[in-house]
Amino acid sequence: MRKIGILTSGGDAPGMNPCIRAVVRYAMSRGLEVIGIKRGYKGLIDGDAEIMNMRTVSGIIYRGGTILKTARSKYFTEEGGQRKAVQNIKKFGIEALIVVGGDGSFRGARILDEKWDVPTIGVPATIDNDIWGTDFTIGFLTAVNTALDAIDKIRDTAVSHDRVFFVEVMGRTSGFIALWSGIAGGAEEILIPEVPVDIDGICERLERGRKRGKVSSIIIVAEGGKAGSSYEIASKVREKTGYDDRVVVLGHLQRGGSPCAWDRILGTMLGKAAVDVAIDGGRGVAVGIINGKVKTSSLKDAYEKKKKIDFDLYHLNEIMAT
Ligand code: F6P
Description:
Blueprint: E1 3-8, H1 16-29, E2 33-37, H2 40-46, E3 49-52, H3 79-92, E4 96-101, H4 103-114, E5 120-124, H5 140-161, E6 164-169, H6 176-184, E7 189-191, H7 199-211, E8 217-222, H8 230-241, E9 245-249, H9 261-279, E10 285-290, E11 293-298, H10 299-304, H11 311-320
Helix pairs in contact: 1-9, 2-3, 5-6, 7-8
The structure holds 6-O-phosphono-beta-D-fructofuranose.
Residues 11, 102, 126-128, 170-172, 223, 255 line the site of 6-O-phosphono-beta-D-fructofuranose (F6P).
């Protein structure tokens, strides 16, 4: 093994830069050359890449986003796009490819590995934390802290105005950000896609709270739930209770910002682990962390199996919020 490639793909996540830095510096310490591909699979198709060195990754450990840039490439889902990508991989002399991203990126990595015989290794990086085979994905805890910072601020104005606030957080189809930021923020309700929304139940609990003197509340809503957007849920609750409410959608704020200490450490650990897998001839796998130890699982399992929400934590909030 002489040369490896690295790309970041899908939604950016804070901690991708520390991971790129770790891949480059560790691989170079093991005598490998590293090619950085720009804008994920799009860059592979376009042949947009550069040789990385110690200096190209200096001063990036604290920066959000990804210096390699990222994209979601529709063309790569087609045979023609994949063929072009593989031609460029051969042209660059890349012998193993490290793909840093979420489930969609892992699907692409598996296609390259199985269908086109390009050894690939996945590193889980997405704010959603919805990748199986790892307790944490890179970016998740920074996003939780960003959401929490906003929730704390919203709490001030909610209390001052005796209002109910619906705060919508990201997560696509999983409730990890909602659950963690909701618990940490002392939310009165946490609505996650994994649990059906019970509008009557929410209204009853709000009424009960009012009777006990709780005149403001924060309801965290994970995007992508079957009950609709936070605006739709808020209007149903308003119709039944008449409470003064406001909706805040945190959106892409949660994707940016300097990675927290854990995301820097996780990015560094998993970047190094991915290089080790490549050197040892491993392929078609994703690295992850389980109970503090680095593990690997198949790329297919990583994106196909559904990582479960901690329902003990979910129910604990029901008690905390009373
Ligand atoms: O997967 C990360 C994520 O931020 C999801 O939480 C969200 O649903 C999605 O990406 C938004 O994607 P885009 O940046 O393409 O709008």
